[in-house]
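Handout, tutorial session.
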Amino acid sequence: MAFDSTFKAIDNTLWHDDGCSTAMDYVEQSSWVLFLKYFDDLEKNREQAAMLEGKTYERIIDGEYRWNKWAMPLNEKGEYDISKALVGDDLTEFVNQKLFPYLQGFKEKYEQNTIEYKVGVIYTEIRNRISSGYNLRDVIEKVDDLKFQTATDRHEMTQIYEDRLHQMGNAGRNGGQYYTPRPLIRTIVKSVNPQVGETVYDGACGSAGFLCEAYTYMHGKPGLTSSEEETLQTSTFYGKELKGLAYIIAMMNMILHGVQSPNIIRMNTLAENIANIQPSEQKKVILANPPFGGKERDEVQNNFPLRSGETAYMFMQHFIKMLKPGGRAGIVIKNTFLSNGDATALRRKLLEECNLHTVLDLPSGVFTGAGVKTVVLFFTKGEPTQKIWYYQLDKHFTKTAALTEDDLADFLALQKTKADSENSWTLDVSTLGVDYDLSVKNPNKQEEVDERTPTEIAESILALNSENQALIDEIMEMVK
């Protein structure tokens, strides 16, 4: 695909730049250039639409800061005029001293709910780190080849962009933060089934994968009205993110997916005392994969009635409080939550205040390279849990054989009726003990027991070692 080959060529250019050294750098630096090209194409479409209606469209990014002025200047025939193109030190000086300050000014000039303000936020938080103006020129020319006029173009671009975020997530994970595979996110979204008119929230949004996929799902509703489109654009999706780069990528990712003014705030979600959350702040749908294993100060832990040093447990309390009565949630969490003694009180709270109707058990390979087992908790707020339906995804995944949506199709089909199968069963909450242990124990599968004696096992190992040595000797003989 054109987008794929172009991004690979851009990465190769940035690999040779002194200011970029990691996959995170490549995504960050190509993103701010890509965003300006995408935004320019968006404004061209708006201009054309206005002309058809006999109206005039006033550009947001105008004058010498338009893409076809500083990045790819055109001649009278509308062709790229390389003789007018800034390059080397002239280009980096313009970008650093004029373009970025100009875009940063949008933050002070426009209201917070506008796309102009969001552009100002993006270019206030991000910096040009491409040190060579020649490399930057090469990146600009490659990005200019990308077109975003059609829905097909935009869909292909967002798919490739998500792949790049995947690479960035795997390269820069820390504190229990891992990129959530898109097939898993799409399945969670389908299961929770957010509807136009409902608010969707992720308090640990990362690159906004859940919010982007929820938008795509909801926007795909047949016969969407202009009023519903306006609702999706302005008052549906809400997110919070602490880390600077993830916050900026989330903003750009949502805009690239079609949400022109994302409601994403940069803040430490856990720093807010949940006792202060008002009903007006609560959301109807929560979709999230909160970080686990992080460290928070005592004063942050004091924001939660159930104190814990585990960030995921604090986030769970936050999500329960942020969910409207009758609201629905799909939360990814480490599977130790189901049995850990430190989470007993939290499990009790979840079961008493919410209907935890489904637990999806995932194998460790779902999160590539993480080696961690997770579950997805699906619950509705406002009624206690009586029965929990479990589904165990019993497959092996690797980096080269990753999770797909087809792998989760059986889960979605069976979940509709909560049917029992080889991989699914129901737990009656009334049978739980005081520890509220929700561990995944599939009653429909018999664990294979090795009935060999220790002597037989030892003999089998020795035989295998002998066979391996014989094979090595044979190969060495052939090499001589």
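The second record follows below. Compare its token runs with those of the first.
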Amino acid sequence: MGRLLLIGREPALAGALGASHHLKGHDVETCAGPFEATRLLRRRAFDVVMTDPASDASEDLALLNELRELRPGIRTIVLAPALSSADVIKALRQHVYAVFTRPI
């Protein structure tokens, strides 16, 4: 079925996503960071990319621009420790599917 890429090493979040009955039958993959995410997206397509919940929202939004160059139309979810209203506006302009802050 679908493929989800979670950027960052969050074992609890990765486990929760993998165990979710909503994602049953979907592949949930993790990668260490932005460099590895870019490398993976060059090789294969994912339906959704979720950013590292520990990374800064502005870094995530810059990364998503790069990822969209590789895979136009990819759905993205930004996870961040905190967001400013400017970050939310930038995310909306970049057509981010969802934005969440801790606790997730």
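Points raised in discussion: The chain is about 40% helix and 20% strand.
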